[in-house]
Amino acid sequence: MSRLSGTGLTLAYDKRVIAEQLSVEIPDGSFTVIIGPNACGKSTLLRALSRLLKPAAGTVLLDGGDVHSLPTRTVARTLGLLPQSSTAPDGITVAELVARGRYPHQGLLRRWSERDEQVVTESMAATGVGDLADRNVDELSGGQRQRVWIAMALAQQTPLLLLDEPTTYLDIAHQIEVLDLCAELHERQGRTLVAVLHDLNHAARYATHLIAMRDGKVARSGPPGEVLTAALVEEVFGLPCRVIDDPETGTPLVVPAARRKTSVQAEV
């Protein structure tokens, strides 16, 4: 049984329904990427899976239990979340922010320990921000800040990590940097990752499992090579295209159809 799944979900904000009878299953040990057009319910689904949004109907199961019935500390030790917009307190250093990832492991009888310090150091090293430990977070570039937030999520030491549009607002070099890091975490540490991405080619290159959504429903799910076809891209995104093999990775590469030449261009 998958450690994280949702069954018969109705997701809504007040009375505005985003999805009905939505069911998903996150394969254990996968790098699952959720794709789909704007407003199709991708981030809403991730919020429901992460316990930030309570379904109006249906159940999100974490290790077989309703995620909303489990103790908060238990959820925080099992499931980490990198939200779409993360704002650090003014004046906080990188090391201080990453250390906040250890809060779920603290308690009345459990104080800061050498183990906590070690995990924070290892998390910063894994994300390449160790040399920034004493810098203020608000002084960093977008790519550096995103790495710091991922380091904080790593410091929670959760087997499941959810990332909502982790490449938003980053230039192409930093997008690849962050996704390479996510892939390394998945491959080297065996963590189950779930990410919402907009770029189809990034999704195809990095995911081991794709969930394609449209209008609050799952249009198709499975390995990228099976899901990302020209027919599906046109059905879900309304985009005529060709899907070829990526010359670097062999994964699907979406090539949008060229704009037709006008009669004036043809004459020239």
From TrEMBL:
A GO cellular-component term linked to this record: plasma membrane
SUPFAM superfamilies linked: P-loop containing nucleoside triphosphate hydrolases
UniProt membrane topology term: Peripheral membrane protein
UniProt keyword Iron, yes or no: yes
Major subcellular site: membrane
Domain ABC transporter: 4-240
GO biological process: iron ion transport
InterPro entries reported for this sequence: AAA+_ATPase, ABC_transporter-like_ATP-bd, ABC_transporter-like_CS, P-loop_NTPase, Siderophore_ABC-ATPase
Record's subcellular location: Cell membrane
Domain of life: Bacteria
Pfam families (UniProt xref): ABC_tran
Keywords assigned: ATP-binding, Cell membrane, Ion transport, Iron, Iron transport, Membrane, Nucleotide-binding, Transport
The protein's name: ABC transporter
